[in-house]
Structures are given as C-alpha cells and as structure tokens.
Amino acid sequence: MNKNIIFLVLLIFLNQCGYSPIYKGSTKSDINIKIINIEGDKEFNNKINSNIRKYYNNNSEKRYLISIKSRIEKNTITKDSKGKITNYEIIAIVAFEINHNGEKNNFTLRESLKIINNDDSFEQRKYENVIKDNFASSMIEKLVIKLNTLK
C-alpha cells in the first residue's frame, strides 16, 4: 500500500514538472546530404553512412555534396614485461569535402579514446565496435552543425 502511494505521488509530481527532452527531434534538420565519394576504412564508412541517412531530406533546398575520407588507427601506449599490449588508443580521423552552391569547404574531424586491453578478444572487438559507432555518430553530429553554419 505504501509503495503504491509513493508511486502515485511521484507520478503526479513528475507529470506536472514541465520536463521535456532537450534533444527531442534534434535529428531532424532542413538539409539534404548526399555522399558522392567515400574512401578509407570500410567498416567505419558503413557506420558513417548509416548515421548520415538521417539527414536525407529530399525536400530541402539546402543540398550538400560530400566526399569522405576516413582512417582508423590503433596505437600502442603501453606493454607489459612480456611484450603484450596493455593499453592502446583508437583514433578516428575523417576528412570531409563539402560542395554547396559551387563552393568547396574542407575540414577534418578527429576523435580518440585510450583503452585498456581486455584478455577476452570477443569482448574487446565488441567494445571497439561500440567506440567506432560512437565516433561515427559524434562526427556526423559535428558535420551537421558545420553544415548549418555554412551559407
């Protein structure tokens, strides 16, 4: 009985607090992005391509033709006494060439994360894929912000 009363009180207060998600609907933008060329790390490019599909708005008048060159690097930071890698860094570098209304703009984004090596190679690959997904998502969000600032 007490749990039900507490739940009801919380529900009433939270319902009337005026909460609304900050990023609600933020993936919608009035731009049309078309990739004309994509080079580099194939797996990472697929992640970029799937993230950029949110911005295929054929009705938009703001059309951007984009060429993408990506690169993923894994750099060793430390090794143990046996020579086994214990810490390393994953770096994602993506160069964008944007063509909009006959003007070309170039910029490069770089994301990196230091990782402690896991003995379980399956879990390690899974974790790296999550990191790459996050890198791709973050870079596309930054790309959209950049496109919205172009005239």
Task: Report on this structure.
This protein has 151 residues and is an alpha+beta fold. Helices cover 36% and strands 37% of the residues. The chain is built from three helices and four strands, in the order αβαβββα. Helix 2 (42-52) packs across helix 3 (121-149). The longest helix has 29 residues, at 121-149.
Short description:
Helix content is 36%, strand content 37%. With 151 residues, the protein is α+β, with helices and mostly antiparallel strands.
Show the helix and strand layout:
Layout: H1 2-15, E1 32-40, H2 42-52, E2 63-79, E3 85-100, E4 103-116, H3 121-149
Parallel strand pairs: 1-2
Antiparallel strand pairs: 2-3, 3-4
CATH fold call:
Double Stranded RNA Binding Domain
Q: Judging by the overall fold, what is the CATH architecture?
A: 2-Layer Sandwich
Quickly count the domains. 1
Quick check: average pLDDT? 85
Largest sheet data: 4 strands, mixed
Task: Provide tags for this entry.
151 residues, alpha+beta, Double Stranded RNA Binding Domain, 4-stranded mixed beta sheet
